[in-house]
Amino acid sequence: MNISRRRLLNSLTAALCAPAAAFAQAPQGGPIKIALIEGLSGPFANAGEAVYRNLLWAVERVNARGGVKLPEAAGGHRPLQLDRYDNKGQNEEALSALRSAIDDGAQIVMQGNSSAVAAALIDAINKNNEREPDKQVIFLNYSAVDPILTNEKCSFWHFRFDAHADMRMAALMQVIKDDKSLRRVYLIGQDYSFGQAVLREARRQLGVQRPDVQIVGDELHPMGRIKDFMPYLTKIKSSGAQAVITGNWGNDLTLLVKAAKEVGFDGKFYTFYGNALGAPAAIGEAGVGKVVAVADWLPNVQGSSSEAFYQAFRQRFPKPADDYVQMRMQLMMQALAQAIEKAGTTHPVAVANQLERARVSLGGQTGAMRALDHQFQQPLVVGVMERQGTPGVKFDVEGSGYGFRVIRQISAAQAEQPTTCRMARPS
Fold first, then answer.
1. Which residues have CB under 8 Å from 409's CB, separation 6+?
2. What is the pTM of this model?
3. Superfamily of the domain at 166-295+380-414
4. What are phi and psi for residue 409, nearest 5 degrees?
5. Gap between the Cα atoms of 382 and 377, Å rounded
6. Cβ(245)–Cβ(270) below 8 Å
7. What pLDDT digit, counting tens, does each position of 183-230 carry?
């Protein structure tokens, strides 16, 4: 690395890692409360804790620069405060947590690990904000990707910062359509709204992009309750499938790929989340060149800004097991801080009106909110699992020795999908 590039990386990393203590010079008003309503116990607790680390780092970086700058009448500089509410992965627990968060003074709600929970929160927030205008809240969604949430169920109060399932599938299809050796594919997913949406869209897009590919299996399984995927992988192997398409996440993905390794399934996995939360370590050597993942960003995206961003996160969370950084969550917090400052108030209607116009950049990644349906528009990347140290794989995942080499980059314009949203807005 030449001296000028090293200096640039060092300066970028220092800026991203500015200590939270720097905020102590600036605060004036009380904290702006953010409620994280997520599964922090149960079968997907690891995913919930990974989210918390990402959001905590994002909050720390906003607070390190002095918090959110507001007029004196609105409290002047105010820190962000991230409060945890465990929904245990259940709708009713999430609704109970929402009530508690509102009673505790939260004006921002964040959730993402489960589209079913997100749908329940959208309905509850719509009702709350209509009935209790003095207790309105905004919902920022970082990973609940059922397309219905920004289509039929779109809401003025809901903003999604992840690419939805149809967008992700379209990105994967750009790779699948070029795989001329692929003739037979197996579809498997979690039996809830998101998993169903993934398989439905996989069937549709295969029919359009690769009508020559035969779907030899199409199966949904209970979410978070399967401890042994061996029977499923035995069926997949015996079907003659050359590849699996899945939207599985968390332990349902990890156990799925572990079973594939155990039964000797030699096909590819086209995944939404194969790059994180234990999957690369579980697959091991068998996944090299075979596990494909789509994401908004990957650690091995080329560029000094991207590298500095990733290095800063690893400095903040140095344990290999904690290495699960999500660019979109950082952009989401940047967008929130920007919207509050431009609104000059924390009033949810004013902040939502500014969030509709949000455009933010970090680590070389730029995204913008689409006002029509509150679906964030950003570039996507597709990567394939390789050994760390091979060309294009400087960084591994969770200390596994395996990372993802970027094989396709999709611009925000290419990733954009139409919407059926007919949004009702406050008068």
1. 379, 380, 381, 382
2. 0.90
3. Response regulator (3.40.50.2300)
4. -120, 130
5. 16
6. yes
7. 999 999 999 888 999 999 999 999 999 999 999 999 999 998 999 999
